[in-house]
Amino acid sequence: MDIAKVIVDVPVRSTDRPFDYSIPESLKLWIEIGSRVAVPFGHRTVQGFVVSLESGETGSMSGLKPIQEVLDLIPPLSPELVELADWMSRKYACRRISSLQAMLPTALKGKAERLISLGESADELSAADGTDGFFPEEELFPMFTDTESEEREITEFVRRAGEVSMKQLTRSFPDAAETVKFMLRRGVLSESQSIKDKMGKKKIKVVDLTMDVDSAREALDGFPARSARQKEVFTFLIEMAAMLPLPLKEVLAVLQVTAGTVKGLEEKGYIEIGEIEVYRDPYQGRDFKPSKPLPLTLEQQSVYSRIAATVDEQQHEVFLLHGVTGSGKTEIYLQCIQRCLDQGRQAVVLVPEISLTPQMVERFKGRFGSGVAVMHSRLSAGERYDEWRKIREGKATVAVGARSAVFAPFTNLGLIIMDEEHETSYKQEENPKYHARDVAVRRAEQCGAAVILGSATPSLESYHAARSQSDIHFSPVLLEMPSRALGNPLPKVQVVDMREELKDGNRSMFSRRLHAALAERLERGEQTVLLLNRRGFSTFVMCRSCGYVATCPECDISLTFHSRSNNLRCHYCGHAEPAPQLCPECGSEHIRFFGTGTQRVEEELGKLFPGIRVIRMDVDTTTEKGSHEKLLGQFRDKKADVLLGTQMVAKGLDFPDVTLVGVITADSALNLPDFRAAEKTFQLLTQVAGRAGRHQLPGEVVVQSYTPEHYSIIHASGHDYHAFVRDELKHRRGLHYPPYCRLILVTLSHEQLPLLLRLAENYALNIQGKAKQLRWYGSLDKLSADALDLLGPVASPLPRLKGRYRFQCMIKWRGSIDAVGLARQVAAELEDSARDTGLQISIDVDPQMLM
């Protein structure tokens, strides 16, 4: 092949296509589809990805620029992943480079680096002063002017290095910018560009013997007395011969010697100091207790047998596993993975970030040991890179991770499992705005792999597709497990009407029933989980004299009070300011903090139950690395009576002594401008209720609500998923929302509101006009018809973020029409007509968040 088609890492619309480059003869053996390469683009060097290869005739190759460099010995992307990226760019209306970059760890997102070497005129400079290009270090060029002396120092510095980065040169000669420019113009120095990764492989210095142990013992006898410290090091290395090479840092720390002592031994030829590559293992030093397969119940066995048959046949099929909390879905995952591994294939397990607890990791590491790679955002960039390499180099056969683990670089993928498939966090909110569920199904289709979508509360889209065999997204096989694996009943749920509590004079955030249930658990030494779906101390700050509310100056959103730092924060743009003591508008002292946050609940618990031990678990207490694991470990070891938190306490936790779950305010999400509000509320209440009574001790759930008559709360309290689905589908069908159609959310933003209003209207009119021309535009009332409808433009629920006003249009469509292509085409035309105005357009296909 002579021509490589390359997607360049220049994320603008005009470059969202393959560019042709010639392949130099020296690189032909190394370049494949999926290779990462350095290519000239304009007057710079950029990173790119080879997406196809072609044979070229002499004429067709004239004028093509050659590829400069192959950046990896093994292509980081397989042809299958390159094809998947192309599919994602079409499905989600994003650029191909965004899809390709999403598949790689941050460490491989390389950028061009300026490199300096000696130019052709450097030899003329050397000849002119008669030095032959070598300058003794002891001579400081007294015969030259300051500028000439600086030039020669720079020339010698570069000559010795061979090639240096501009950053290195600037660090060594911080005041020589003009001199360097002058030397480049004269050709004394030459500049080129190369791609440098953000991070490389980790290497450490190690120490080893240069001879066998017997020879070393003989050499030890001849050590002079004055080299006592060196002899001590040499003796230590002989004693540790079976463990060599040893890290140099470890030798220095154990023996308390200097690096110079060890270096002296190397100079005498007794030892050698080298470098070895080491993996950054996020779980190094952790022992995972090995686990064996558990006997399956009849329900589990039936489900397992059905999935195992597909895995054995190595065919593509999608299963929707609907099992109540505690039904034993994880054990089915583990045994299906083993079935897949027995065939020499690999498996990916997707878990919501919030559910990727140490407990979850322990279950997979305990079953499959070092063959498990873990990928999630709480790892450092270096750890994520090394876990990715572990997969690519065949050292792992199972990848457990959050959304992006769907791109794990396996070569023989046989099974993809998505736990808690209903979770909205599987949808990425930044470009590329992909849904991991749909990407998983597509990738499994490419590989001939099985897919298991597991949940106690499946998304309505997935469940409706399984029941009706609708193919809006895919048509899974429905498998149900309505019983708990251990035979214990689902916990009793009591809903408390907080309006009645208020009527009876109870102004506390705790109802009398929840207060009494907490007291009972404290007396019996049992544990409680309390859920509050909100972080911070209070929701907002208001002046009771004039009505002033503290808002973010960039986002027009109320600020949240945090007591630990005594400041107000915007959870969208990060703006922070001190909490006011007086009203900044009227000067009144009557500033009040309204709402209920986790910090306030923690404080109230301390007042009601002096001495109570509370672990608060929210975004603010789990920012530090390892904090999540540490807090859960403390609760597991019964160092706390109550685990208080936001959504993260509702997912994937299994503690035998938790017998009470309390939900402080069940309706907090019901009034959000989101058609999925009822579904999300039902799912969250069902999930958190499942944390209670999972073992021998019976469980109880107390749900506090101001709207206990809402069907989502009624059905959650009865653990009745099917009844909820029946009521919710009636609601969705009447309003033409998924699963009865698909959505595209188009958000336009600009710093100037009047201009944004005009542009948003233009966008909507153009969509309607083109859809009418294509005979797509019309009502969605007929369920079988191809149709497209448009809502808006209207101000977004968050009308201003980071200084930009926001308006949105909602496209609803059904059938085989290319609504995504239409939305993308009209957006491109509007961006072209409004070029240089600062307009930004975001297209979100199948959105999960409507804010």
What does this structure look like?
One of its GO terms (molecular function) is DNA binding. Zn(2+) 2 binds at residues 552, 555, 570, 573. The chain is α/β, with parallel strands linked by helices and 851 residues long. The chain has 5 domains: 3-112, GIY-YIG endonuclease; 113-196, no CATH class; 298-481, P-loop containing nucleotide triphosphate hydrolases (Rossmann fold), CATH 3.40.50; 492-538 and 595-732, P-loop containing nucleotide triphosphate hydrolases (Rossmann fold); 742-845, Alpha-Beta Plaits (2-Layer Sandwich). Helix content is 33%, strand content 23%. It has 25 helices and 33 strands. Strands 14-15-13-16-17-12-18 form a 7-stranded parallel sheet, with helices on both faces. It has a 6-stranded parallel sheet with strand order 19-29-28-20-27-26, with helices on both faces. It has a 5-stranded antiparallel sheet with strand order 2-1-4-3-5. A hairpin with a 2-residue loop joins strand 3 and strand 4. Helix 1 packs across helix 2, helix 1 crosses helix 15 (436-447) and helix 8 packs across helix 10. The longest helix is centred in the C-terminal third of the chain and has 21 residues, at 753-773. It is globular and about 90 Å long. It starts with a strand and ends in a 6-residue tail after the last strand. The model is unreliable at 130-144 (pLDDT under 50).
CATH topology-level fold name of the largest domain: Rossmann fold
Note the beta-strand portion: 15-25%
Strand arrangement, major sheet: 14-15-13-16-17-12-18
Q: How much helix, percentage-wise, in residues?
A: 25-40%
* CATH C-level label of the largest domain: Alpha Beta
CATH-defined superfamily of the largest domain: P-loop containing nucleotide triphosphate hydrolases
Low-confidence stretches: 130-144
Task: Estimate the global geometry from the Cα principal axes.
Answer: globular
State the secondary-structure class.
alpha/beta
The major β-sheet equals: 7 strands, parallel
Q: Could you say how many structural domains there are in total?
A: 5
* SS elements, strand count: 33
Please tally the helical runs, counting DSSP H or I stretches of 4 or more residues.
25
What separation lies between the terminal Cα atoms? 49 Å
Mean pLDDT: 88
Q: Please state the CA-atom Rg, rounded to the nearest Å.
A: 32 Å
* CATH architecture field of the largest domain: 3-Layer(aba) Sandwich
